[in-house]
Design a protein that fits this description.
- α1 packs across α4.
- The chain is mainly alpha-helical.
- It contains four helices and two strands; from the N terminus they run αβααβα.
Length: 107
């Protein structure tokens, strides 16, 4: 079943399948309510701050709804959440590698 009008899911980084699987085990669905994402991964942000950061793009996580109502529940697709986690982990790894290389004594 294909929909020619539907845009492909554009991910800046393909998430690891293990990350997607663990998220599915945690949340039990491919669409994760945005409030659950905030509680699980952004505990330091209150609801308003989290929404402001989503809207400004500071947290690069696309938000979707299943209907066009203003009161519709907001969701994040599991692959987007997984990609965000994997990207941040990759960046942390690169930063750690850079700082280790810079602090090593040269012989």
């Amino acid at each position: 079943m294909s929909n020619r009008n539907q845009l492909p899911l554009r991910l800046p980084y393909a998430p690891e399948s293990s990350t997607v699987e663990l998220l599915y085990r945690t949340f039990g669905d491919v669409l994760i309510p945005i409030d659950k994402v905030r509680v699980q991964y952004f505990r330091n942000l209150n609801e308003q701050t989290f929404n402001d950061q989503l809207n400004s793009g500071r947290i690069p996580l696309p938000v979707t709804t299943l209907d066009s109502s203003r009161k519709a529940l907001k969701y994040a697709h599991i692959r987007h959440v997984a990609a965000l986690i994997d990207i941040r982990a990759h960046k942390a790894d690169e930063e750690q590698s850079r700082s280790t290389t810079e602090t090593e004594p040269q012989q």
